[in-house]
Amino acid sequence: LNCFIFDSFRFLIKGGLAGAAVYVAYDQGLLGSGTQGAEALKKAQETLPPAIQEWTSYLGWEVRAAQLPPTPKFDFSLSDAWNKGVHTVMSALSVAPTRACEYTMEGWKYVKDLVK
Amino acid sequence: MASEGDLGRKWDRCVADSAVKLGAGFGLGIVFSVIFFKRKSWPIAFGSGMGLGMAYSNCQHDFQSPYLLHGKFVKVS
């Protein structure tokens, strides 16, 4: 009987911990819609660097150039990065014929000078 | 508001949501693995997969619902 009570108690504790973890995740909006998830990530991005800063100063690790890098800033936009990449590639392609001409002329001039 | 800007914002939201759901699924998988399943690795993979699946479903719903208009009939007496 004692074993049964102890096992039941242990199961209740474990169930409670697991349920609390799921509830916290739900409450923070981690399991909701896409908008909620994006907002949760934004909130975390704003909260994390000051938290890292606080912990490093609490532990006595000063942020110096030689020792620790500065607190990282997370701000990544996939669409901005993609658009920038497309612009860069298209700009490079648009000037490619002109540049190829210039390099060919320079190379030809170099070879002519060598041959002289 | 330009439609390509709106599409870009949807993609950003999708990526952010995927990261959040993957992290949450991974974390909950670790919790369940430690508490119930004797530190096996499959709950972690299961949780991560569930998170990714939820994110995919949210993204799909977000991309497919641009022009849905929800109306309702109002009786004029």
Automatic annotation (TrEMBL), chain A:
Its main location: mitochondrion. The gene is Mic13. Component of the mitochondrial contact site and cristae organizing system (MICOS) complex. Belongs to the MICOS complex subunit Mic13 family. It is found in: Mitochondrion inner membrane. InterPro entries: Mic13. It is a single-pass membrane protein. One of its GO terms (biological process) is cristae formation. Component of the MICOS complex, a large protein complex of the mitochondrial inner membrane that plays crucial roles in the maintenance of crista junctions, inner membrane architecture, and formation of contact sites to the outer membrane. GO terms for cellular component: MICOS complex; mitochondrial crista junction. Keywords: Membrane, Mitochondrion, Mitochondrion inner membrane, Transmembrane, Transmembrane helix. This is MICOS complex subunit MIC13. Pfam families: QIL1.
TrEMBL record, chain B:
Keywords: Membrane, Mitochondrion, Mitochondrion inner membrane, Transmembrane, Transmembrane helix. InterPro entries: Mic10. The keyword Amino-acid biosynthesis does not apply. Its main location: mitochondrion. The keyword Mitochondrion applies. GO terms for cellular component: MICOS complex. It is found in: Mitochondrion inner membrane. Pfam families: DUF543. It comes from the Eukaryota. It is a single-pass membrane protein. Component of the mitochondrial contact site and cristae organizing system (MICOS) complex. Belongs to the MICOS complex subunit Mic10 family. PANTHER family: MICOS COMPLEX SUBUNIT MIC10. Component of the MICOS complex, a large protein complex of the mitochondrial inner membrane that plays crucial roles in the maintenance of crista junctions, inner membrane architecture, and formation of contact sites to the outer membrane. This is MICOS complex subunit MIC10.
